[in-house]
Structures are given as C-alpha cells and as structure tokens.
Amino acid sequence: MKPNDHNEPRAESAQPQAAQSTCEGRVVAVAGDVVTVKVSSPAECESCHSKEACHLAALGGRQVEVNGSGYKVGDRVLVIANSPAVVRASIVLYLIPALLVLVGSFAGFFTAVAFFQADGNIGSVVGVAVGIMISIVFVHTYKVATHGGGFDLRLEKLED
To answer: Which residues pair with 116 in a beta bridge?
Structure first.
C-alpha cells in the first residue's frame, strides 16, 4: 500500500467513527515520515465467510506503509481507512469484474448465435474468458492508478 501524507499521531483514545474501517497493528519500522505497521485482522473478520477474498481481512498479518511522524517501533496504532475509499475499491475490485464476466457471457452467447450460427454455449464460455481478461486488465490498471488499491490510510496512536 502506498503511504499518504496527512497523518499526525494522536494521544487520545482512538474511537473509530462509523464511516471508517479500522485494524489494530504495531509499528515495525520507521523510515523518515513512512511508518511500517504490521496489521492484525479485526475480530469481525474471523467470522466472515468472505475473509479469504477481502482486502481488509487480507491486511491481517501483513504490513502497510503509512505516512506519519512521531511514531516509534513498537507503538500500538489503529490503521484507519475511509469507508468511501473502501466501498469504491470494493466496487472496482468485485462488482465491475463480476458485471464484465456476466456481460461477456451474454455477448458471447448472442454473438455466436447471431453471427456465426454456432452453439451459444461455446460463445458464452468464450465471452466469459474475454470478460475475465478485461477484468484482470481493469483491476490492474486501477491498482496502478491508485497506487495499490486507493485506500486512504491514516494512523492513530493507541495507549498500551
């Protein structure tokens, strides 16, 4: 994940707002204004059926880099992601690819039947494959354009 540039440590107790997704973590490295945090999964993630596919749950046990100053190795912090950014990333990473596969299936079916007088099922499979390829390119382009998924991360210091 790409660091952002508006983080300040806060000494008060970090209470996440309703419009934010949060994960606790520990600072494992500080290089200038870039703080590397090892993130643990939130408790809600453990019971979720989609945790293997979720980018928030995927943060568990991983490291993220966030711009911030005033942190030292070992500090317990709360990594906060803006919910609008999480929703936008979810739409781009899940909904749009699913729609592309669905549209590819229908387009392949009708193209095979109308133009090639071929079996619609074969056309549908080809359309799904094309939809998957377009989805992969689309998601990769989005990740490159947003420097790793578009999450706007910030840190809050927690009391030990």
So the answer is: none
As a whole number of angstroms, the distance between CA 69 and CA 31 comes to 10
Q: Residue 145 class from Cβ within 10 Å (0-12 exposed, 13-18 middle, 19+ buried)?
A: exposed
Tens-place pLDDT, residues 97-135: 999 999 999 999 999 999 999 999 999 999 999 999 999
CATH, domain range 20-82+148-157: 2.40.50
Residues in the chain: 160
Question: What would the two tokens of residue 77 be?
Answer: 């912090």
- Return the domain boundaries, the chain: 20-82+148-157, 86-144
List of residues 6+ apart from 88 with CB closer than 8 A: 150
- Measured CA to CA, the distance from residue 106 to residue 83 in angstroms comes to 33
Element (H or E) spanning 62, and its range?
strand 62-67
Residues 6 or more apart in contact with residue 79 via CB below 8 angstroms: 22, 23, 24, 25, 37, 39, 59, 64, 66, 153, 154, 155
